[in-house]
Amino acid sequence: MKVKKAVITAAARGERLYPVADTIQKAMLPVIDVDGLHKPVIQIIAEEALASGIEEICVICAPGDGERYLSAFGSLRDNLVKSYKGSDWAKDEAEKIDNLLNRIQFAEQSEPLGYGHAIYCAREFVGNEPFLLLLGDYLYVSDVAGKRCAAQLLELASQAECAVSAVNPTIEHQIGRYGTLTGKHLAGEVGIYQIDKIIEKPSLSTAELELQTPGLRAGYYLCFFGMHVLTPTVFEILQKHIEQGGTNILLTPALQELAATEKYLALEVKGNRYDLSRRQGLLRAQVALGLAGEAHDETLTTMVELLAEANSRKSK
Predict the structure, then answer these.
(1) d(CA 124, CA 112)
(2) Which whole number is the average pLDDT over 35-39?
């Protein structure tokens, strides 16, 4: 199963990032990537997909945002070319933006009817193919040298020829933030499960009763990592849910139905995900990317200096 297309959901306005998301798209917030260069969040996410073998990307956005993204990236490219003439890094970065613009398109979610509805807006782009799904406010750091988190997921989907969701073992007090699942561990495989049951942001009591997964450390559950490889069957399921009405179409119930319909696996991805919408989420993501990349020493030095300053103030 060859996955050539990726969908990135970026239609939400990002209330938790107030006030900045009131004036610019949250996906255009700048972050220093592992290569040491400042980039918009959406570019880092797109490069996660492209570096993992994806050929085409569709961003699900709010009405009018597609043109704003194109204009912003065009300005970034032009600025790199004009302001940093003769700089190899600027030339390389401008070429990356050109490559991104050649591979990206946009689909608008006309009304904010939920995450599942946003994904359904990519149906025409996806067609009858499997696709990689990424969140527009999650950044990822792989623990495997030379293999992105998305590449790990795509590799298993290709081998198993089925839908696969990335998961991380997550401590119990955090599971209320994530879709959480349980399943049967595949014999002879490390960190691969046949998905059985999925619940969106469960309470701890519900998780204890229904989502225990044998083999995990006590107090840990399998939670969604923020990336999936899905088959086009999910659009048929989402269409049924949309036709039933409602103003908040969720993805998780559709994935539960998918698990009952066809082979559907979960993979413990070797890496970490960082939710930019969380309190201190952007800071956590920036520190993680800094420590994982070329700015490691600079990031570490900055952290030590800040801790020393804070300790000095506390001792006065």
Answers:
(1) 19
(2) 88
Using pLDDT thresholds of 50, 70 and 90, give the confidence band for residue 13. low
What is the mean pLDDT of the segment spanning 102-112?
Answer: 95
d(CA 257, CA 261): 6
Question: Angle of helix 41-50 relative to helix 88-103, nearest 10 degrees?
Answer: 80
- pLDDT, tens digit, 9 for 90 and up, residues 241-251: 999 988 999 99
pTM (two decimals): 0.92
Is the pLDDT at 263 greater than 70, yes or no? Answer: yes
How crowded is residue 283: how many other Cβ atoms within 10 Å of its Cβ? 12
Pairing of strands 138-142, 271-275: antiparallel
274 touches 284 (CB < 8 A): yes
Sign of CA dihedral 173, 287, 65, 69: negative
